[in-house]
Amino acid sequence: MPSPVHAQPAPWQADKGFENGIPIGTKITQANWQQYQQFMPESMIHLFKGDLFWHMPKDLEIDVGPTRHIFPPKLSRKDTEKYGNQTHADETSDGGYIPKGYVAGFPFANPMAGDKEQVGAKMYYNNYYRPAPRVEEGAQLLLYA
């Protein structure tokens, strides 16, 4: 008999013993959210608690579905393939790293390759330069005298 299917824990929870995740089909509501809070980021917990200005609606229902990978847009993948191997991480005077030679796509096609000391910085910059589509509406600059 197969075991029940579970949604995967959030990456920041994976090392905290939450390997079973939340069963797919679970409905998280204002009435039961606390039993799933170990799978939530701190900000979401505050939204459920309602202890800040912003809060979750009273009738909120989160339907837990299967984990799925969301691929970056095709152009971003093509740009990463074309330019991702020409970017390198230069060490700064304070011991950090900054990308040099970045053009488009993710700066580092394989952030795990090369110097292990730079992996964190490469992953950070891949996240910083990730595709982030947004909708912008015409804005007016209002000046008051």
Arithmetic mean pLDDT = 82
String of helices and strands: EEEHEHEEH
Largest sheet: 2 strands, antiparallel
Biggest sheet strand line-up: 1-2
How many β-strand stretches?
6
DSSP summary: helix tally: 3
Question: Could you outline the blueprint of secondary structure elements for this entry?
Answer:
Elements: E1 6-7, E2 22-23, E3 27-29, H1 42-49, E4 61-63, H2 74-83, E5 88-91, E6 97-100, H3 119-128
Antiparallel strand pairs: 1-2, 3-4, 5-6
Mind explaining what this structure looks like?
By secondary structure, the chain is α+β, with helices and mostly antiparallel strands. It is 19% helix and 12% strand. The protein has three helices and six strands; from the N terminus they run βββαβαββα. The strands form three sheets. The protein has a two-stranded antiparallel sheet. Strands 3-4 form a two-stranded antiparallel ribbon. Strand 5 and strand 6 form a beta hairpin. The longest helix is centred in the middle third of the chain and has 10 residues. The protein is elongated and about 50 Å long. The N and C termini lie far apart (74 Å). The model has no long low-confidence stretch (mean pLDDT 82).
Features:
6 strands, two-stranded antiparallel sheet, two-stranded antiparallel ribbon, alpha+beta
